[in-house]
Amino acid sequence: MTIQLRVNGPRGEEKVIDVCENEEDLKKMTVKQLRDKIARELEINGDIRMVYRTEPLDESSLLLSYGIRHMSTIHTLLMLPGGIMG
Predict the structure, then answer these.
(1) What is the CATH number of the domain that holds 51?
(2) Does the global pTM surpass 0.85?
């Protein structure tokens, strides 16, 4: 069974994406791998951050550590460059 996630994109788009082939692959997938896949699927060239439920996702962690499973919803935020106003 293909594992899919719902993704709420930074521009308001909503999309279901295929993440991996099975549960075993999902257990090994990192947040960084998911971020790269989402960036390709949504054609995002900037820096994106991801949130599951209310928790920001750390790129070095496994999706498993957040309890992400088939049809979970991931929210994405586009990080814009900026500076300190003085």
Answers:
(1) 3.10.20.90
(2) yes
